[in-house]
Fold these 4 entries.
Entry 1:
Amino acid sequence: MAEGVPHIRSVVVERDIAFPPEKIWRALTQPHLIADWLLPADDFSLDIGNRFAFRQSWGNIDCEVRTVEPNRTLAYTWAAFGLESTVTWTLTPIGNGTRLRMEQRGFRPEHDEAVRGATYAWPAYFTALEKTLSRDA
């Protein structure tokens, strides 16, 4: 770590899911499906630079699409409560489905509470995603 550069942390969740990358990609990128397992984001689109917001009862999480590689990688910024991070989804085909990896990167030392929240929330979102995938033919 360079002198004077704050330590940046990540929360990573990785899970093998018994669905093909194309189906998972759809759940990651279609607003009605995103709302089913994550949060409402009606203004989401796959255009690089598209600004959108996940809506919560307490306010919005402001986001901007940064990377789009269909069926492989999706990244967007994630900004709320003074935390600015990036969420990157990586889909890797495996024998019986897809290895789905999510990394939320950008937590600074003062973000301990946010790290704890993300560490708790993302696995639950993965479980909700799997339920959405099971229902959405």
Entry 2:
Amino acid sequence: MSEKSSTKTNGAMKKGTAYWQTDWMTKVMSNGYNPQAKLMFLRIASFGESGCWMNNETFQEEFNRSESTIRRAISALWSKGDIIITGWNGHGRKLYAAGHPKVKPSLNAMFEQTKRKGKITTIEQYLDKIRLRKQR
């Protein structure tokens, strides 16, 4: 039997890219979460460095789950540090996969941009302004 020398793709991902198989993804997927939290994490991670804009109601409609199930999944992911939650002055919540290789540089760039505009002078002011939820 001859081996297949090339594979066909639908163009959705670059050849050889499989984020779900990287170390930061497998760590979360084997971290003892329930299936709903894993599904939520994969959806949040799919947004990459731009951050997931979806509110809880949108998650409810997409996954056909109750509000409390969505809140528990987000809280579980956040409490273990696998997602980062931001919101400018409490508005415009965004969820980021903490382990994504492009998220931290993106958040740092947002800090620098805000600093250049003169809205803040220190990282503490920035964290307070975006209300970055810190782990306890």
Entry 3:
Amino acid sequence: MIELALTSEQAMIKAAVERFAAEAASNGRVDPWSSFAELGWLGIGVREDAGGFGGPLETMVLMEGLGRGAVAAPYVAQAVFPGKILERAGRLDLLRELVNGEARYAVAYDEPGARSAPHVVTTTAERVPDGYVLRGRKTHVLAAGGAETLLVSARTDDGVAIFAVPVEDFGLLRRDYVGEDGRDVAEIELDSVGVEPPGMIAGPEHGLAVLEYAFDHALGALCAEAVGVMTTMHETTVEYLKQRTQFGVPIGSFQALQHRAAEMYVELELARSMAHLAALTLAADPPAPERRRALSAAKVQIARSGRFVGQNAIQLHGAIAMTEEYKLGQYFKRMTVLERLLGDADFHLQRYLS
């Protein structure tokens, strides 16, 4: 297995996440937000003057651990994605509240037909004497149910801006539903929602750049989570092949099944190397075109490897893999969602080539 050499701080994060995941699995914790704040994890990857520490590599270690433990927590949706928007926009006052666990945000950027593209924005922000009026519809808003404020992208006469909208705002209509993996998703309709000037988080002169920067950081975190999910699926499958017997011998002794498990391992390591590339690219903070290409390349490989590992894990387990009681099913569902989240392989291949 190819692994980056961890610093002492990263090793501590890895060990803490493993303990946390084991505890979450035993007590069925659904929303561990307060624990994230107590452990200091909401500050991972955040600049020091806002109360944070570490960077994309530390985020990768955390997310891979959460993926391995199938911890159903809105970390990317409510910490990484909105946190990077606030950081890049210079709103350190709001970022400190997020790091301390005092405020919870969700990002409403995707729109019907946009295929997760941040630059496709038809939601409008009309300038009025006392601020702006937002009109439009947002889809696939992750973890909106637990958030207090939405960070909404909208197009002004001068470009794309990002606005903070309280979830209880009059004129904001929300339809909550449960995703394939059991996690909270929402559709948002903005029916003449008024926002005063302080509610503009990022102005039209740099709003889209801020959104794409945060989008790529969220993408890198999801790639790391996917590697964790795939790792557990592969390990679970290998262990099953060792234990399941047929004709009086473990089925893992059959050469054809050994080859399938080996192919799963190869795909897993391809995905791991690209997740490392994504984290290292984000840590280097290159120009936007270079960053986008690297992150899209990583997502393409993650999506393809995740499908291969997941499908083979199900097939090698047989009927037991399809039962609700067996843990492999929840990993497969999460990987299926991760394959499409923030853009599927086709979307990112086009983004890479553009």
Entry 4:
Amino acid sequence: MLRHLGRFAWGLAVVAIAAAPALAIAQKPTDADRAATLIVRWQQIIYPAFEDARASIDEENSDHLNAVLSQGGVRATQDRVDAAGLKKIEGTVKQLAAALIKSAKRYPGGSLIIDSESFDAALDAVCPLYPFCGR
């Protein structure tokens, strides 16, 4: 199994454990809760797209990708993006995933590796891309 899927599953477990106390007392979700929910939703789009394309991302660049997604989650939450806007952002996430896969280096056997160079090339190809980057 690809390295990033283990990190992804671990991240989901952390979010679920962190959210459990908030659910137990049925409080109104905080901005941090809403941002975390968005980030997980977007990870559930990007990482399976990598797997479907037989693409892998190393730990360092997975951390960079998660930072980009986190930045986007915080920004979308702060901007109070509505349901229609969030649906549009999901399309943006798919666009980002496609750019990362397209820029990945192809290796014998057909596997793709998303390294620092391909990560930067993908961002250059799609940015500015709300809410993820403004460059």
